[in-house]
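#struct-help
A.M.: can someone run this one for me? Single chain, 248 residues.
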Amino acid sequence: MNNLKSLLKQFGLKSQEAKVYLSNLQVGEAKISDIAYHCDLPRTTVASILERLEKQGLVTSHRQKGKQLYWIEDPQVLTSQVKAHLEITEKLSQELKNFYRTIEKKPQTEIYDSEKTIQHLIVKTLSQLRKGDEILTWDNPEAKNYQQIVHEEKHKLMLKLKREKNIQTKTLIPFGTDQYIRSFSKDQPIIIKILPEGIDATFSVWIVKDKVVFFSGKYPYATLIEHSEIVASMKNWFQFMWNISTNI
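D.P.: on it. Structure tokens below:
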């Protein structure tokens, strides 16, 4: 009996509701007073509970010779309701997933204006990546943005993180700057393409998952932008430039 009460409570019935339900199930068709006697609860309490259970479809009633009789028509009704609730829960779960964070947030922006903070940003970004993730970059090796920010010790740490996680980098560089990057490319898993002549920039760009980072080692400074639409646009732009660029 206690196990049944516990299961009914897990289904959603309150303690007294479970008690009245099981009493009615055992007694069969009966008056409120008989059910109240069997479950040892006040008649008014039982009457209120039976009314609620009837609204839920768990109890049936009819009048006979001026008296209201209650009975459990079929315990299978409870099972059917559980199945119906499960179906509704599955549908609701899917709809809630589709609804989750559908209102676009404003871009999140962070500024880094020292070698130390930019180094921390780079290492933190690499640390958060998962195995097999990809980094898209636009870089001008002649400007030496990385060399001015990422010194030898930090550079080794970056390469170690990238190797451990098998992080692939795709890099676009301006026309005529490939001689500055050839030896460097041997140290890491990287694919490099040369942009068409005339397309140039002295700053560097990282496109990493849901973030875009613009940075320069000259000043130094870095700006991180986190926004799904901006990142998607940057990825589309990068892919277009990648398609029209030539292999190194």
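A.M.: thanks! The chain has ten helices and eleven strands.
D.P.: also worth noting: The radius of gyration is 34 Å.
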